[in-house]
């Protein structure tokens, strides 16, 4: 039986995912179940691939694909990018992270219009999303400031 009060030691995949989430999806950092489940799935993928005869490198590649599935596109990073590129005079880079967290809930309606996927940033729709976010952030700053 797991001791709920004892912190769980994370595997290599768990630590990697934690680092990745910290940079790209900080809103998921507190979801320990997600982190543990995804890390376990990556470990299982690696072990199964090795049993099937994949090389170490091939097995690692499959495990990392499993670990980061549906996490390549980041709403948070997209908002940061818009702030840095379009609002550098209004929002200093050092304040962009905190401001992005503040903005994200009000931007969910915009994000919900798009089929966000791992390769979304490479589609033409990304440019439309970027423009729409720029406009909404501009209106937000004009109305509420930073």
Please describe what this structure looks like:
The protein is built from 6 helices and no strands. It is elongated, with a radius of gyration of 19 Å. By secondary structure, it is an all-alpha fold. It has helices at 12-24, 32-51, 56-67, 75-86, 93-111, 124-144.
The overall pLDDT average reads 91
* Gyration radius from CA atoms, angstroms: 19 Å
CATH class of the largest domain: Mainly Alpha
- The oligomeric state of the chains shown is single chain
User: Can you summarize the main beta sheet?
Assistant: none
From the helix content, strand content and strand pairing, which structural class follows? mainly alpha
What is the share of helical residues?
Answer: 55-70%
| Topology, number of strands | 0
Strand fraction: under 5%
CATH superfamily of the largest domain: PG0816-like
N- to C-terminal separation? 47 Å
User: Are there runs of 5+ residues with pLDDT below 50, and where?
Assistant: 1-7
**SSE run:** HHHHHH
- CATH architectural grouping of the largest domain: Orthogonal Bundle
CATH topology of the largest domain, by name, is: Helicase, Ruva Protein, domain 3
What is the tally of helical segments? 6
């Amino acid at each position: 039986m797991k001791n709920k009060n004892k912190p769980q030691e994370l595997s290599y995949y768990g630590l990697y995912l934690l680092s990745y989430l910290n940079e790209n999806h900080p809103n998921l950092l507190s979801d320990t179940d997600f982190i543990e489940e995804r890390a376990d799935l990556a470990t299982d993928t690696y072990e199964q691939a090795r049993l099937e005869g994949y090389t170490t490198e091939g097995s690692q590649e499959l495990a990392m694909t499993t670990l980061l599935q549906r996490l390549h596109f980041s709403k948070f990073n997209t908002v940061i990018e818009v702030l840095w590129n379009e609002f550098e005079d209004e929002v200093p880079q050092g304040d962009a992270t905190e401001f992005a967290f503040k903005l994200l809930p009000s931007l969910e309606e915009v994000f919900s219009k798009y089929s966000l996927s791992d390769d979304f940033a490479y589609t033409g729709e990304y440019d439309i999303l970027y423009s729409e976010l720029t406009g909404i952030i501009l209106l937000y700053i004009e109305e509420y400031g930073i």
